[in-house]
Amino acid sequence: MILTSQRLKSNFLGIELENPFILSAAPSTDELSITRRGLEMGWAGVVLKTTSMETTRVDLAYPMMSSFVADNRLIGMGNIDLISAYHVDEVCRRVNILKKEFPNKMIAASIMSDSQLGWQTLVKMLKGAGVDLIECSFSCPQGNVGEDPGKMLAQSESATEQVATWVKQAAGDIPVLIKITPQVTDIVAIARAVQRSGCDGVTASNSMPALMGIDIDRLTPIPNLGGKSTYSGLTGPAIKPITLRTIAEIARNIPEMVISGNGGVSDWRDSVELIAVGASNIQICTAVMLHGFDIINDLTSGLDNYLQSKNIGSVKSLVGKALPNLTDHSNLPRQQIRSYVIKENCIGCGRCYVACRDGGHEALSWDESARLPVISIEKCVGCGLCILTQPVERCLELRELSK
Ligand SMILES: Cc1cc2nc3c(=O)[nH]c(=O)nc-3n(C[C@H](O)[C@H](O)[C@H](O)COP(=O)(O)O)c2cc1C
Predict the structure, then answer these.
(1) Residue 263 Cβ < 6 Å to ligand 1
(2) Around Cβ 343, how many Cβ atoms within 10 Å?
(3) Does residue 237 have its Cβ closer than 6 Å to ligand 1?
(4) What pLDDT shows up at residue 55?
(5) Mean pLDDT, the chain, as a whole number?
(6) Counting atoms of ligand 1 from 1, which one is nearest the CA of 135?
(7) What is the distance in A from the centroid of ligand 1 to the CA of 83?
């Protein structure tokens, strides 16, 4: 059942969204039938997979997907996908169809080009087709098309400002988001370049360029395409901390910047985190590719229940709520805290003892007869390493020294 709640509704750059969850540019938005199903299931909008001019060759190579597994859990996904093989004329046709079928959903298109004429022609064609918003991919890990195809536009302040200015000139009153990469030295400088261009906001961010692994029997990188490989774009849970930092850093320095959050969101809790550091809405790709469109039900009901339980009246009221608590290292309180063993919960595994012995402060000793770790209050600094090794809930906890 599709949840419609007042709390989840928002106005994003003049576009009414029934909830903050949008399908990001990816395979799920590359086929009309698939995209249509996503919208029917309750997603508030789509960014159609990045398109370009008819002259742009899209030479895909398979297999394109790979995984990053740790502790038997897929925590990241890799892809060597390129932009859509559908060129702009076909995407315009789809925008037109989708806008008629779903007048109350956000139908956005993502574009990439290699010249002023190319960027502006794409924008004008999509505008003519009735698109609600244009997103510019300045951050495909396989690089942008054009003279410097291996490089991402959003790695250069001047290129970002120049191209974003061209796009906004052509877009006029249609909102434009620039999809940036976290893989830069100064993310705020890139966001400021977007601001100077007159574009309306950023999508923060995209997949992270990565090498997914090496098959150590064949000594070939992954994914293996006939013995060869290349760098992938890493997506999914593994990149959430990077996305959070990217959004937070922009929002702290440029509070007026409109941010569409993207990267590593798997459930409603993740979405709360991204919104709380400054995202106005959430784009999702990997979680949908792995678990299907149905996750929209958990996302909307989970977020709505959370807002209600916290007495927060709207998604907008949550935007940036965690930022006042984010500060620089030098401003952190210097706390007197120590680790405590909660004996009744300890299962005697000894993991905390080993970690503190070899990676901490030798503050834990091991009582073999009781099979319990014993903490030296003098040696413990409260670093928190032992807490990370807990095999069960609350067998250790940090407490203020006086308590
Ligand atoms: C197979 C695949 C293809 C993608 N294609 C595009 C694309 O054409 N344009 C784009 O801007 N982002 C593309 N992305 C990136 C996603 O839109 C999204 O930014 C990224 O996956 C991070 O979000 P996630 O962690 O929710 O997956 C693609 C991602 C995947 C996995």
Answers:
(1) yes
(2) 11
(3) no
(4) 81
(5) 95
(6) 11
(7) 10
Instruction: Tell how far the Cα of 270 is from the centroid of ligand 1, in angstroms.
Output: 17
Query: Residue 281 has what pLDDT?
Result: 98
Give nearest CA residue, ligand 1 atom 2: 26
- In eight-state DSSP terms, residue 207 is P
CB 161 within 8 A of CB 191: no
Q: Which fold has domain 333-400?
A: Alpha-Beta Plaits (3.30.70)
Q: Which residues of the chain have pLDDT under 70?
A: 1, 142-150, 403
Are 279 and 250 contacting, i.e. CB atoms less than 8 angstroms apart? no
pLDDT of residue 402: 74
Condensed to tens digits (0 to 9), the pLDDT of residues 239-290 reads 999 999 999 999 999 999 999 999 999 999 999 999 999 999 999 999 999 9
pTM here is 0.96
What pLDDT was estimated at residue 401?
Answer: 87
Decide whether any atom of ligand 1 lies within 6 Å of the 83 Cβ: yes
**Alpha helices (H) in 86-205, listed in sequence order:** 88-101, 116-129, 157-171, 187-197
Q: Is there an atom of ligand 1 within 6 Å of 24 CB? A: yes
Which pLDDT value is given to residue 151? 78
Check: CB of residue 177 under 8 Å from CB of residue 201: yes
Residue 362, SS3? coil
Distance from the alpha carbon of residue 31 to the mean position of ligand 1, in angstroms: 15
Domain 6-325 identical in fold to domain 333-400? no
Contact 277, 284 (CB under 8 A): no
Q: Is the CB of 265 under 6 A from ligand 1?
A: yes
- Does domain 6-325 correspond to CATH entry 3.30.530.20? no
Look at residue 148 in the predicted model and tell me its pLDDT.
65
User: For ligand 1, what atom is nearest to the CA of residue 266?
Assistant: 26
Q: How far is CA 64 from CA 103, 230, 280, in A?
A: 34, 10, 31
Task: Point out the residues that are catalytic.
Answer: 140
Nearest CA to ligand 1 atom 28: 26
Residue bearing tokens 């994003």 = 12
**379 in Cβ contact with 356 (< 8 Å):** no
Look at residue 56 in the predicted model and tell me its pLDDT: 83
Q: Where are the domains of the chain?
A: 6-325, 333-400
Among 235, 246, 282, 288, say which to mutate for ligand 1: greatest number of ligand atoms within 8 Å of CB: 235
Q: How far apart are CA 207 and CA 236, in angstroms?
A: 8
Joined tokens for residue 166: 């061209």
